[in-house]
Amino acid sequence: MKYRDDVITSLDTCIKCSACTAQCPVSKVNPNFGGPKWLGPDAERLRLESGAILKLALDDCSNCKTCESTCPSGVKITDMILKARRKRSLDQNTPTLALKMRLRGYVLGRAEYLGRLGVIWPGLTNKVLGLKIMRYGLDKALGISKFGPLPPYSQALGIRADQAKDGQNRKLERKVMYFPGCYTNYNEPNTGRMVIKILEHVGYKVVVPDFHCCGLPLEANGQFAKAQVNATHNLELMENYLQVNVPIITSCTSCGLTLKEEYPKVSVPGAERIGQQTFDLFEFLWSLHEKNELPLNFIKQEISLGYHLPCHLRAQGIGIPSLRVLSLIPGINVHNLDVGCCGLSGSYGFKKEKYEISMQIGRGLFEATKIGVNHGDFQEMITECGVCKVQIEHGAGVPTKHPVWILAQAYGLA
Amino acid sequence: MWDVVVIGGGLAGLLAGIRAAQRQKKVLLVTEGVGTLFFFSGIIDYGDVEQLRLLPGHPYQLFDQETINRGRKYMEQVCPDYIDTERSEAVLSPLGLLRSGDLVPKGMKLPNLLSVGSVVLLVPNGLKDFFPEIVVPNLTNVFKNGQIYVENLVVEEFQRWFELGRPITSVDYADYWRTQKGHKVLKQAIGKIKEKFSSRLENGEKSVVVVMPSLVTEYWENARRGKWVADFPLSVMEISSFSPSPHGRHLAEYLRHIFQDLGGEIVFGARAVRSELEPTENGYQRCKQLVVQSKGKELILKAEKYILATGGLLGGGIEAINEKREIREAVFDLPVFIPEEWSSPHFFEDQPYAFAGIMTDHQLCPINPLTREVVLENVYVVGRLLAHWDPWIQRCGAGVSITSGFVAGESV
Fold this sequence. Notes:
The complex is a heterodimer of chains A (414) and B (412).
Chain A: H1 2-9, H2 19-23, H3 25-29, H4 36-50, H5 66-70, H6 77-90, H7 99-109, H8 111-118, H9 122-130, H10 132-142, E1 175-179, H11 181-187, H12 189-201, E2 205-207, H13 216-220, H14 224-243, E3 248-250, H15 253-261, H16 271-277, E4 278-280, H17 281-290, E5 303-307, H18 311-314, H19 321-326, E6 332-336, H20 355-361, H21 363-374, E7 380-382, H22 386-396, E8 400-401, H23 404-410
Parallel strand pairs in A: 1-2, 1-3, 3-4, 5-6, 5-7, 7-8
Chain B: E1 2-7, H1 11-22, E2 27-30, H2 49-52, H3 65-78, E3 89-92, E4 98-101, E5 118-124, H4 132-142, E6 147-153, H5 159-164, H6 170-177, H7 180-202, E7 208-213, H8 222-225, E8 235-239, H9 246-261, E9 265-267, E10 271-279, E11 285-293, E12 298-301, E13 303-308, E14 318-321, E15 326-329, E16 379-381, H10 391-394, H11 397-411
């Protein structure tokens, strides 16, 4: 295993087959972006050799990680690209971005602060964000596309304190910690509430501490130091729970991937356990089912659904546990479209210069969704990722929701 | 608990998974990447089956002729773009050379070569890894009674790419031809060619055909892409491509969708790292569970049966560890047949390392090369990982993968 790890980190693992470029959703529609092989392992040689960083194209990668799940040789392509981005942010010689771009990075990177502001008076925020003049202003002043499907805000999910008193043996209690993430917290708190309800329904107490943003949007917008601060803060909140094997549950696929992939690299206590103890909600429910602990008293659902696999769920390498769990419910029929990235990729598609690209990337998915609806295969879509949902509704005009809602109906909870 | 876990998403693994899922098995397919179908031309070679069956230990020896034929028919059934005429067909290589294939994509099939009057090679602007200066003389040899013309096709959609010096791969173009817009552009271009040659046709010239790289008209699914008919004003012959191959890519996607529509599930981006074994009642061993590396944690997968389709040295099913001069099978650490000499100094000669692999019994269960005893009762080995053959020299790569994948899918 050690040997293999060494090979993977070495550049020679890449056999230049270009399968990643053939699958890269961005490279397909953006001629300026030479693709993952070019920006990853190819450019890495130059970066290692001369310290030079191909600066501009670094931002064209949307960090969807399709290249990594494509590579037949296990090359960690996006790792190389992110590392180069990090290095660039430390490089004194990098010309500073225009103020507008820096501001935008600040705004889009801080989905959390925006969220905290947005939920103070969601009705007003949504009205303001819905104004054409406001979107025009954001477009001009910050380069946030006036066409991008900015999701509306709602009453925040809030925190749920641990009820266990001091001295009570935590091990005896079946408990999970829920990491809702910014989108669930501020844009779709009802989904978060339903996740909690389901977890309680299957017999777990749910703790939601005052987490900060997982850090992925910060990384994606070049705010690396802040991402590190957030990870440290969140891991501190988790540490005591990680020590006594409390599972950490995510319902957002990007938060899940960050916790599993990035947090183990942070050097604070608990980081060594976070990878194995983080579960996607349905991954967790499936693990209960494998132990015969999942209640199976489902109400029959006569429903056909289309399914979109979010890139960051595919990248977790756990398959599609939601479809496994939903297949336990009698009457449900799911069409797994499997046609690739939706194009939004976090905050990528909100950026003015990326909006068109993001819509072109999603074209295949929009088309397949519309065809499915026109054929009468399904009338509704499900997907775990909040921004994929927003993008599908925007691009295909088909109502989309998190699969937890289907499960909730079957349990009679919704 | 799964009925079957397939490890590897290439041709053998996907076909085995499809067959098993069709037989109502609950199947999970685990794959680290997209599999080697991305390097596959789309042309299925079986090689000289009768002769190959005489070679000691060759995978074809594991099956009777009837089973091999059934596998072939099965492939045709799964993918009706392949029509089994029970003889080999002539197709064009990426360099415009004539080669034969046993099952070929419909659009690659060549007409009667002597009946062709004019051949128009249609070259999309900036197409990567395509060399008209080599292809044209080769085509002259192929179409002995024909005249070869070259038409360049400037596609506005890719003009910016061209200006930037960004190569446009055949995968990019193939995708474009499969959109409504791209189809229209191509149809217009071929219409113009027809117009240009109309006087010749009127003057009694036999026929005009278009030869074109980067076009894939097969592996089309109406359920995901809508209705699309490749109707061009002239008949168009597709040429296979170098890697990454659009034909291979679209076949891979097509098979993946069929597998998933049958209820199969795919775990992408996960590598099977090891297995845990247990003894059986009759003193043998079986795989108890499989350990797969996902992001952040190891997953334990339990199944009744496991199909090992991880490929050979290129696919990663066999690891060669340089420092130790050791060759090992990557998941179950199965005993590997290793030829005494690994390589021959002449590059284009038979290379003995190609024969390294896993030996099996007729059920495809792995056996020890020395004692010939079954090593793991519930593991089935398929595809390139099998021992005693060379897909390149013997030209039977897809044939062995289809046959063994089909047989494993039937017997699990």
